[in-house]
Amino acid sequence: MRGKLMYEGKGKQLYASETDGELIQLFKDDATAFDGVKHDVIAGKGELNCAISSFVFEKLHTAGVGTHYVRREGTAEMRVKALDMMPVEVVVRNVAAGSICKRLGLEEGKVLPYPLTELFYKSDELHDPMINTEHAEMFGWATRADVQEMRAVALKVNAVLSEMFAAVGIRLVDYKLEFGKCGSDILLGDEITPDGCRLWDAETGRKLDKDVFRRDLGGLSEVYHEVANRLGIAIAFDA
């Protein structure tokens, strides 16, 4: 059951639970873009993201990837392990899209020769600037060994998710991951949903992610439902 509110972000809230070392993560119906400049509330979005993220974390658990996920507990809630989060995001890119196109002048849709990992400092105020391993180590955000492990886990996640999405006709273009420490262990935290992934229909290239909201391309709920349906995820949840 939910206790004291411990943290609130743009898309989620974290509450204390009755169990030491575990939190309740509530997915909100808020949709944001451009560091919160664009905002809307979309009924049912929290439930969709909770269902998708729970499904993905369970797949990763089966594949041997350590995550903060314990179990799904309600319509838009999951129980997670409490982590000491590192302010370093790992972005994995299979296809050029988004910021890398602006930075390097690449054409959107260019298939990369192999998965590319990039690091970003998690800071809305600074617009999540790109960093390297030396930055992370110098400023105490993560050690060199931490970064090496996060990159390795990110590539393992990429192999699992690319296969999973390809099987239902979806191309995994790119996505971001966040990590935290539980004792000496580095675990994958946060969420894995269409909010933080670029997902394109494999045949048409139609966007099935938050770019639909960013670019006013249609209804966000409809495309998130499509992703869930293709993966065979049941949305209705009985507590």
SSE topology sketch:
Elements lengths: L4 E4 L3 E5 L5 E6 L2 E4 L4 E4 L3 H18 L6 E6 L2 E5 L2 E12 L3 H6 L6 E11 L8 E2 L1 H6 L5 H23 L3 E13 L2 E4 L8 E5 L9 H4 L5 H12 L8
Antiparallel strand pairs: 1-2, 2-3, 3-7, 4-5, 6-7, 8-9, 8-11, 9-10, 11-12, 11-13
What is shown here, in short?
The chain has 2 domains: 87 residues, 2-Layer Sandwich (Phosphorylase Kinase, domain 1), CATH 3.30.200; 135 residues, D-amino Acid Aminotransferase, Chain A, domain 1. Helix content is 29%, strand content 34%. It contains 6 helices and 13 strands.
Explain this structure.
The chain has helices at 45-62, 99-104, 133-138, 144-166, 211-214, 220-231; strands at 5-8, 12-16, 22-27, 30-33, 38-41, 69-74, 77-81, 84-95, 111-121, 130-131, 170-182, 185-188, 197-201. It has 239 residues and is an alpha+beta fold. The longest helix has 23 residues, at 144-166.
